[in-house]
């Protein structure tokens, strides 16, 4: 089904560059996305997969001359939707952009890339991966978006779909000149669209077709990090790593190992096993800066576990020793109360810590440590009231 827009008759023989969008219920962002690509491509094709909000009206209201709006019945597969867009594009070069993205680069920058995308031999086909910048300034240059519209190219996978070719070897080219800004994974957007639950469902469906594919397993484990049991995930990852070694699919090995580390942190694995995994990651990429972060996080988690164990021990000891303690640091045992208060603070039990520190101060028990921690608590209360952190 094709909607009536402001598009005039276009000579398909003159079409060179086409921007393609897959949309559904994108009223929050679709206008700014269209504004960012208008005038930069010879044609814009938007495929709507069943919007029930104001998305279609907003698109039509833009009255963009070279915009074509098509309807595609949702099949529980982003690959199907993308392939439908490709099949309806007559341009030589296609550029995929999502509705929650904004293209920052101009038309001149787009056109400069066309010679690089042209088919130069019968084996390789260049695919450009723009610089996609997230809301937190993190960016990636590993997602193929811009390529020659060869009939042999298609997408596979119900979500996190992968560009494939039966006859060509796709040569991935990171590009820092073409810049896209993206905000679709802001926490509130993820929750409002139930993206994670949807992605898990579609990934499980894809894995029924390719159960040992490293890409689908990686994204499943990433999307399900908050839901999956660590023991289950670690077992699954180790199986996939054996398969990667066997098939030499090293392109995803680093990502899978990184995910293994995250699940080991979640499951509080032994330090020996954790360091072994860090060494494995380092053997693939010796200067991987994530290793320093993960090692620091592991030590912090280990300290917190030990601190909680010590706190439990101190509380139990204090409950069993309520009598006066002549010749000790304090006869009434306030020195024991003070160390308990400090551990309460460091373990995050701020209200209990404040109550115990206040008790000690009110009983005129003072020390440099009590003054320091009590001031931290008072400062934290002030910051909370002013809304600086919470």
UniProtKB/TrEMBL annotation:
Keywords: Glycosyltransferase, Transferase. SUPFAM superfamilies: Nucleotide-diphospho-sugar transferases. Its EC number is 2.4.1.-. GO terms for molecular function: glycosyltransferase activity. Gene3D superfamilies: Spore Coat Polysaccharide Biosynthesis Protein SpsA, Chain A. Residues 21-111 form the Glycosyltransferase 2-like domain. Belongs to the glycosyltransferase 2 family. WaaE/KdtX subfamily. This is SPBc2 prophage-derived glycosyltransferase SunS. It comes from Mixta intestinalis.
């Amino acid at each position: 089904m094709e909607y009536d827009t402001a598009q005039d008759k276009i000579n398909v023989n003159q079409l060179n560059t086409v921007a393609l969008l897959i949309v559904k219920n994108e009223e929050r962002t679709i206008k700014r996305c269209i504004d960012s690509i208008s005038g930069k491509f010879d044609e814009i094709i938007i495929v709507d997969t069943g919007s029930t909000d104001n998305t279609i009206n907003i698109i039509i209201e833009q009255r963009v001359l070279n915009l074509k709006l098509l309807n595609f019945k949702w099949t529980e597969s982003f690959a199907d939707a993308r392939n439908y867009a490709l099949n309806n594009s007559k341009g030589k070069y296609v550029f995929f952009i999502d509705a929650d993205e904004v293209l920052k680069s101009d038309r001149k920058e787009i056109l400069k890339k066309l010679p690089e995308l042209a088919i130069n031999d019968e084996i390789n086909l260049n695919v450009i991966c723009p610089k996609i910048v997230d809301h937190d300034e993190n960016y990636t240059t590993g997602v193929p978006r811009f390529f020659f519209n060869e009939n042999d190219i298609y997408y596979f996978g119900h979500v996190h779909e992968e560009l494939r070719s039966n006859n060509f070897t796709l040569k991935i080219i990171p590009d820092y000149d073409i810049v896209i800004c993206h905000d679709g994974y802001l926490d509130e957007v993820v929750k409002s669209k139930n993206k994670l639950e949807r992605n898990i469902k579609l990934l499980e469906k894809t894995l029924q077709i390719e159960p040992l594919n490293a890409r689908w397993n990686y994204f499943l484990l990433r999307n399900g990090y908050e839901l999956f049991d660590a023991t289950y995930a670690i077992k699954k990852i180790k199986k996939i790593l054996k398969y990667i070694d066997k098939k030499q699919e090293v392109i995803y090995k680093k990502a899978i190992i990184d995910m293994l580390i995250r699940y080991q942190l979640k499951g509080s694995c032994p330090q020996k096993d954790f360091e072994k995994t860090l060494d494995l990651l380092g053997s693939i990429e010796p200067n991987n800066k994530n290793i320093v972060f993960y090692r620091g996080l592991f030590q912090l988690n280990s300290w917190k576990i030990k601190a909680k164990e010590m706190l439990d021990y101190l509380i139990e000891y204090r409950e069993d020793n309520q009598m006066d303690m002549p010749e000790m640091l304090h006869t009434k045992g306030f020195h024991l109360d003070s160390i308990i208060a400090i551990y309460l603070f460091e373990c995050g039990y701020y209200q209990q810590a404040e109550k115990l520190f206040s008790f000690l101060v009110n009983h005129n028990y003072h020390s440099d440590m009590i003054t320091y921690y009590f001031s931290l608590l008072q400062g934290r209360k002030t910051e909370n009231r002013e809304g600086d952190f919470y």
